[in-house]
Design brief:
InterPro entries: EmrB-like, MFS, MFS_dom, MFS_trans_sf. It is found in: Cell membrane. The protein is mainly alpha-helical and about 500 residues long. About 75% of the residues lie in helices and about 0% in strands. It has 16 helices and no strands. The protein has helices at about 10-45, 45-75, 75-95, 100-130, 130-160, 165-170, 175-185, 200-220, 225-250, 265-295, 300-305, 305-325, 330-345, 355-385, 390-415, 425-455.
C-alpha cells in the first residue's frame, strides 16, 4: 500500500513534479492557439498549416494516450513519466527552432507522443504514491494547481508571443523539463501494476491514430478536392472500422468494446463528442477572431479568454456537488445549452467590438455552461461502469474528447467556407467565424438532447471523481484509479 504522506518533504516533491509534468502538456494545448497568427506570418503558412499545427499534436496524443497509461503500468509509472517529460521537451525544442511549417508540424506530432506518455502518468503517480488518507487532497491540489496553470497560460503565452516571440511558447518547456525530470527520479517512488500481462495492443493504437490522422487530413484538404483527399477519407474510415474489429477480437484489448454495453456510458461519450468538438473548434477560432478581426494583440487575446478558465477553477467543485444532489441529467442538458448561447453571443464580436459589452458577456455565459457540465460529465462517466473499470472509462472519455476537438479543428473551416488565406482577410474570416459558431452551437444542442433523453442518475455507491476543481478547457481530467489495462 502506498504510504507517502502529503505533509512530508517527499510528498511535496511528488506533488511538484506531477504538477510540472501535467502543466507542460496543458499549457501547450491552451497557449498555441494564441500564437497561431504570428506563426502563420513568420513561417508564411496558410490556414491548413495552422490547423495541422494544432492537430498534429492532438492526433498522436488522442491516439496513444490509452497506450501511454498501459506502458506506465507495465514498465513503471515513474520511468514512463520521465521518458514522456524528456520526449516532450526535446520535441518542444524542435518546435522552437523549426525553420518552416513542415518541421513545426512534425515536431508537434512528436510532442503529442510525449504528451501521451506523461499526461496519464502524472495522476497515476499521485494515485500510486500517496497514502489513501491523503490521496484525495493530493489530487485536489494537483487539479487546482493545474487549473491555475491553465488560467495563467494564455496570459504568459500572449506575453511571450508579443515579446520574445512565439518560439518561446515551446522553448519554455525545456527548463520546466530540466526541473521536473531530476525531481521525479530522485523523489518519486517507482510503481507499476503486477497484474498486467501479455503483449501490448500496438496494432490497436496504430490503427486508432492512423484513422484520426487520415480523416483529419481529408477534412483539412477537402477544399482542394482531388483523388488524394478521397482516398485519405476512405482509408481513414477503413482504419476506424479495422480498429473496432481488432478491439473486439483481441482477448485483452486497449479499448474493450464491451464497455459500451452500458447505455449510460455510451450516451455520456456521445455528449462528450458533441461538447468537446464545439469547445475545441471555439478556442481554435476565437483566438484568431480576436486577433485577426477585432485587432487584439496576442497578449490581449490570451487575457480576454481568461474568464472561462477562471470560472471553471472557482465554481466547478460546487457544480459537482450540485450534480451529486440533483443527478447529472439536468446539468448535462443545461450546460451545453448555456455553452451554445455563449457561442451565439460571439456573433456580436466583430470589427470594433467592445470587450465589456460584446466579448465578456459571451465568455461569461460560455464559462458558466462549462462549469455546469464538466464535473457532472466526469462523475457520470465513472459512475456508468464497474468501479474496477473507472480508470479505463476515464481514459476512453478523455481520448474521445481530444479526438472530437481535433476533428472539429479540421472540419469547421471547411464547413464555414474558410479559404487558405482566410486568417489574413479580416472581413472574410469574420463571416466564416459566424458560420462556425452556428455549427458549434448546433453540436452543443445535439449533446443536450442526448443527455436529456438518455442520461440518468448513477446507482448509489458508484465511483466518484477525486478532482473537484478543473481549469482545463480542451478535455476532461483523467480521473479514477490508474488505468490498468491488460493489453495483448
Amino acid at each position: 500500500m502506498p504510504d507517502v504522506r502529503l505533509a512530508s518533504p517527499q510528498g511535496r516533491w511528488i506533488l511538484l513534479t506531477t504538477v510540472l509534468g501535467s502543466s507542460m502538456a496543458l499549457l501547450d494545448s491552451t497557449v498555441v492557439n494564441i500564437a497561431l497568427p504570428r506563426i502563420g506570418r513568420d513561417l508564411d503558412a496558410d490556414l491548413a498549416a495552422l490547423q495541422w499545427t494544432v492537430n498534429a499534436y492532438m492526433v498522436t496524443l488522442a491516439g496513444l494516450i490509452l497506450l501511454g497509461g498501459a506502458l506506465g503500468d507495465r514498465f513503471g509509472r515513474r520511468k514512463v513519466f520521465v521518458v514522456g517529460v524528456v520526449w516532450f521537451a526535446v520535441a518542444s525544442l524542435l518546435c522552437g527552432i523549426a525553420p518552416n511549417a513542415g518541421v513545426l508540424i512534425a515536431a508537434r506530432a512528436l510532442q503529442g507522443v510525449g504528451g501521451a506518455l506523461l499526461t496519464p502518468g502524472s495522476l497515476a503517480l499521485i494515485q500510486a504514491s500517496f497514502h489513501p488518507d491523503d490521496r484525495g487532497r493530493a489530487v485536489g491540489l494537483w487539479s487546482g494547481f493545474g487549473g491555475i496553470g491553465a488560467a495563467v497560460g494564455p496570459f504568459v503565452g500572449g506575453w511571450l508571443v508579443d515579446g520574445p516571440g512565439w518560439r518561446w511558447v515551446f522553448l519554455l518547456n525545456v527548463p520546466l523539463a530540466l526541473l521536473c525530470a531530476p525531481v521525479a527520479l530522485r523523489h518519486v517512488p517507482e510503481s507499476g501494476d503486477q497484474r498486467v500481462h501479455g503483449r501490448f495492443d500496438v496494432l490497436g493504437a496504430v490503427l486508432g491514430a492512423l484513422a484520426l490522422a487520415l480523416v483529419t487530413y481529408a477534412l483539412i484538404e477537402a477544399g482542394g478536392g482531388g483523388a488524394v483527399v478521397a482516398v485519405s477519407a476512405v482509408a481513414g474510415l477503413a482504419a476506424a472500422v479495422a480498429f473496432v474489429v481488432v478491439e473486439r477480437r483481441r482477448p485483452d484489448p486497449m479499448m474493450p468494446t464491451d464497455i459500451f454495453a452500458s447505455r449510460q456510458f455510451t450516451a455520456v461519450n456521445l455528449v462528450t463528442l458533441c461538447v468537446y468538438a464545439a469547445l475545441g473548434g471555439f478556442f481554435f477560432l476565437a483566438a484568431l477572431q480576436l486577433q485577426v478581426v477585432v485587432g487584439y494583440s496576442a497578449l490581449a487575446a490570451g487575457t480576454a479568454l481568461l474568464p472561462t478558465t477562471v470560472l471553471m477553477l472557482l465554481l466547478s467543485a460546487r457544480s459537482g456537488e450540485l450534480a451529486d444532489r440533483i443527478g447529472p441529467r439536468i446539468p448535462l442538458t443545461v450546460g451545453p445549452l448555456l455553452c451554445a448561447a455563449g457561442m451565439l453571443l460571439m456573433l456580436r464580436v466583430g470589427p470594433g467590438a467592445s470587450y465589456v459589452a460584446d466579448v465578456l458577456p459571451a465568455l461569461m455565459v460560455l464559462g458558466l455552461g462549462m462549469v455546469t457540465l464538466v464535473a457532472p460529465l466526469t462523475a457520470t462517466v465513472l459512475g456508468s461502469v464497474d468501479v474496477a473499470r473507472a480508470g479505463l472509462a476515464s481514459g476512453i472519455n478523455n481520448a474521445a474528447a481530444r479526438a472530437a476537438g481535433l476533428v472539429a479543428v479540421a472540419a469547421l473551416p471547411l464547413l464555414a467556407g474558410m479559404g487558405e488565406e482566410a486568417y489574413r482577410e479580416p472581413g472574410a474570416f469574420d463571416v466564416a467565424f459566424g458560420k462556425a459558431m452556428a455549427w458549434c452551437a448546433g453540436a452543443l444542442v445535439v449533446g443536450a438532447v442526448i443527455a436529456a433523453a438518455v442520461v440518468r442518475r448513477p446507482p448509489p455507491g458508484c465511483k466518484r471523481p477525486e478532482c473537484l476543481r478543473h481549469g482545463g478547457v480542451t478535455a476532461p481530467p483523467l480521473e479514477g484509479e490508474p488505468v490498468r489495462k491488460r493489453l495483448s
